[in-house]
Structures are given as structure tokens and as C-alpha cells.
Amino acid sequence: MSFLTFNNWASLLFLGFAFWLYYKYPVAKDRAAEPPNSIYEFTVKDIRGNDVPLSNYLGKVLLIVNVASKWYMATFAALRFASSSVHFDIFFFAKNVHFDIITIAICGLTHSNYKELNILYGKYKYQDLEILAFPCNQFASQEPGNSEEIEEAVCTRFKAEFPIFEKIDVNGKNTAPLYKFLKSEKGGLFIDAIKWNFTKFLVNKQGKVVERYAPTTSPLQIEEALIVAM
């Protein structure tokens, strides 16, 4: 009976270790860890909880927007003062006027964006444009409702016909994977975080992010870019 030599034992140990590595860390797992190349590698949930592979939109030009449906009317309390009052506080006045201006801007963003998104969708939905709307409650709690309430507001009050998806986070530790990808592809001014509702990402027919637009950029201002992409 022959005994295994040291070299034989070493070879067997090496082979065993190689097999262990192969089964513990298969090639598929390495590939899964690779960063996504396009949005087509993501699956999201629609407003009713159904899975939607974004590969369904292969060959479409996409405008991806984080949306909100609530808004707040300014009170203009700071403007209600007597010009002759000796108690007029200029710092209090400036602070409240600033608040009112911001509030008015918020109101305008919600209504104008939905109005113009609807215009774009009506003009180009049969020409390879799709608008994907993702509700988010991270900015002044302007999207606090559940899925049914959001769908009612967006589809009934704002008459939106484009797809509405499940409410997500676009910043922070719970950021949706899709939005991590979008921000990594097109960072923002100074920081990559989404600044407010109605930040817009333009995605070409190959699933690549080609441009990012600020909340204050109206949808109709990017109509020409959409036409070029289509």
C-alpha cells in the first residue's frame, strides 16, 4: 500500500480549496456585484404595488421625475401691518416675507410641473416618450398620503396619464436603488442629493442618463432636448 507524498497532499489541499472558493463565491455573484450599466437593470413597483421591470421601456426616451401633490397657500401674514406702526420689526418682516416667497414658489412648482408634464406627454407619448413619476415625501412633507390617495390626487386632480410609481426616498440611507444610480450618473450642483420635488432626469433609448434638470427647470424648457433624444 503506497502512501501519499507531501506533494500529493499539497495538490489535494489546493484543489479542495479551489472548489470551496468556486462554490462559495461563484462567478454569478461577482457579476451581480458589478455596478448597473443602464436603468434597464432595475425593477420598481408601480403605485399599486406591482413589479415593473424598467426593461419594459427599452427603446423609449424617459423623463424620470420625483413628484409631490400637496401644496400650501401663503398667508401673507407678514404683509398685514400698519405702515405707521412703531412696533414694526424689519427682521420679523423679512423672515416672514422670505417664507411666503418660498411657499408661493412651492405652489407654482406643483401646478406648473404637472400641467407641463401633461402637455409633453400628450404631444409625444406616441413618439417614444415615457414619463415616470416617483412620489416622494422628503421635501416639506408634500406627499404624505398612501398609495390610493396619491393616485387619486395625481390622476384626478392633476389629470396625469403617465405612469405613477410607489412612493420612495430619493435621498438618505433608504434611497431607492434607481435613484442611487441616477444620482451617480448625473450629479447635481455642489452636491448630488436631490434638492426638491420635480428634479428631472432625461434617459435616452439605450437606458443611459444624459441630463439632469433642476426643479425650477420647467418641463417645456426641455422639450427640444426630448425631441433630439427621440
Automatic annotation (TrEMBL):
Q: One GO MF term, please? A: phospholipid-hydroperoxide glutathione peroxidase activity
Question: Gene3D superfamilies, from UniProt?
Answer: Glutaredoxin (3.40.30.10)
Q: Which SUPFAM superfamilies match?
A: Thioredoxin-like (SSF52833)
Task: Tell me the keywords, alphabetical order.
Answer: Membrane, Oxidoreductase, Peroxidase, Transmembrane, Transmembrane helix
Q: Name one GO biological process term.
A: response to oxidative stress
Q: Which reactions is this enzyme annotated as catalysing?
A: a hydroperoxy polyunsaturated fatty acid + 2 glutathione = a hydroxy polyunsaturated fatty acid + glutathione disulfide + H2O
What the entry lists under InterPro entries is as follows: Glutathione_peroxidase, GPX_CS, Thioredoxin-like_sf
Where are the membrane-spanning stretches?
A: 6-23
Task: State the source organism's domain of life.
Answer: Eukaryota
Active-site residues annotated for this sequence: C107
Q: What is the purpose of this protein?
A: Protects cells and enzymes from oxidative damage, by catalyzing the reduction of hydrogen peroxide, lipid peroxides and organic hydroperoxide, by glutathione.
Q: Which family does it belong to?
A: Belongs to the glutathione peroxidase family.
Entry-linked PANTHER family: GLUTATHIONE PEROXIDASE
Q: Know the name of this protein?
A: Glutathione peroxidase
Query: Which organism is the protein's source?
Result: Buddleja alternifolia
